[in-house]
């Protein structure tokens, strides 16, 4: 695939996270499990979350899966940004990311690493790839317990 005219720096960061993801694997223990699939590209992400005692804070996020550079880099960047965030903050971040993919919002200074994905909003076919991990996160956070492994969300019907 080609990232077209994405700015070189951003392209480099994306490729780095794709080749050497820092948050690949499975959390221990697993408090939330959610699988997400993006049929238009073939990306599949399996997210696992470790929460604190009352389930209000995200202690760890890991992902597994196969996908294009955009999908994997997006998952890794997301996992990085979510460490220690509250569930409410995480849901706001989902919203913000989806707005960013529509060419709107960007992330504030503390989360500016996520803005490397901003260029993807110029490539409509890639937006679903970038959104997949966030879409999957939202489903994971909104389920009150560990989902059955065979259950998965698809972002096929999502507007781009
Ligand atoms: Zn993809």
Description:
With 160 residues, the protein is of the alpha+beta class. It has a single domain, classed as Sufe protein. Chain: A (Alpha-Beta Complex), CATH 3.90.1010. The chain is built from 4 helices and 4 strands, in the order H-E-E-E-H-H-H-E. A 4-stranded mixed β-sheet has the order 3-2-1-4, with helices on one face. A hairpin with a 6-residue loop joins strand 2 and strand 3 (58-66). Helix 1 (8-19) packs across helix 2, helix 2 (69-82) packs parallel to helix 4 (124-142) and helix 3 runs antiparallel to helix 4 (124-142). The longest helix is centred in the last third of the chain and has 19 residues, at 124-142. The chain is globular. Bound molecules: zinc ion. Zinc ion binds at residues 38, 41, 43, 67-68, 70-71, 129. Zinc ion is lined by residues 38, 41, 43, 67-68, 70-71, 129.
